[in-house]
Amino acid sequence: MERLVMHVDMDAFFASVEQLDHEEYRGKPLIVGGLGGRGVVSTCSYEARRFGVHSAMPMGRAQQLCPQGIFIEGNYPRYAAVSAQIFAIFARYSPVIEPLSIDEAFLDLTGMERLMESPQQYAQALKAEIREQTGIVASVGIAPNKFLAKLASDLDKPDGLVIITKENMAATLEPLSVGRIWGVGRKAAAELSAMHVRTIGELRRFDHARLAARMGERMASHLLALAHGIDDRPVAPRGRAKSIGKETTFPEDLQSAAAAEQVLLELSEKVGWRLRKAGLKGRTIQLKLRRGDFKTYTRSRTLPDATCYDEEIYHTVRDLFRELRLSHGIRLLGVSASNFDDPGSISLFCDEEKKENLYEAIDKIKQRFGEKGITKAKLIK
Predict the structure, then answer these.
(1) What's this model's pTM, rounded to 2 decimal places?
(2) Of 18, 47, 104, 261, which one is the catalytic site residue?
(3) What is the percentage of the chain residues whose pLDDT exceeds 70?
């Protein structure tokens, strides 16, 4: 099933609420934030942005750029009340909502295609309802994942609606600045610029080894994945258990099934240890595999009984791996467990009691000597 994620962001939220409540602020440069000596801009109206004012700017600098602006501290209880109205509307459009802040959220629309005429119509209806009930204008992005959806919502502000699909993704990303990528701040942008990488398109074509040598393997893998529009993170409501997992990206692609299964054994051991430390057992075990061409596969299996045991996790992901019939050109492997049972659930079977006793002894050694204090013989190098 293809993923479908919506990102909704209120345009200049605090300033918009103030202009809604105060007619005298409308159409004028309004700056909301701390008015003290070290105050910063929380948000500002689009009229103020024309003067170069933006969020997180020191208030003193904003006053220099826009001396004719209206500067206020803001009414945060009022903003929270409007936010509650907006999130109540979100709940009518998706059962899975991940708040990012008081004025933006991800909505998971996966599997809801039959409930809508089209994603565009669905987004237009949401935007219209927010505006009708609160007077606030929202920008919306829809895409196959969170990174692309958030990027899309920012491409045509204010009052935007942008949809990124697999078909138009490359053309959309190509000309954009690398600064659009999560994790690329001024320092990272300067590093990339020094390598003559200024657009996402240039980054997509950049050599991984050269990038890793300059910025580190982890950062390089992160940047290249997002540049290719890859983002596997789920839309995750706060406070709800998600998953426990571990993945690794290889400096050089794995070229044999034996090497891959060795890594899967090591990852399964780490996931089992983390589950037991958290007092959790997962029913669903997932394998993630990415090839050198960035094509990504995820396969999962839901077990009859929840587990936190290394061998059961490993046997499950090993079988999933073998079913894929991919034995070379493997760039990344990951193992995770989700669909948790209630913490502390007790089995009625003797074999389970023996396993719990065994792993209790193993974990005591790990707690004393570290995660590598005891491991499988196959993993000793």
Answers:
(1) 0.69
(2) 104
(3) 88
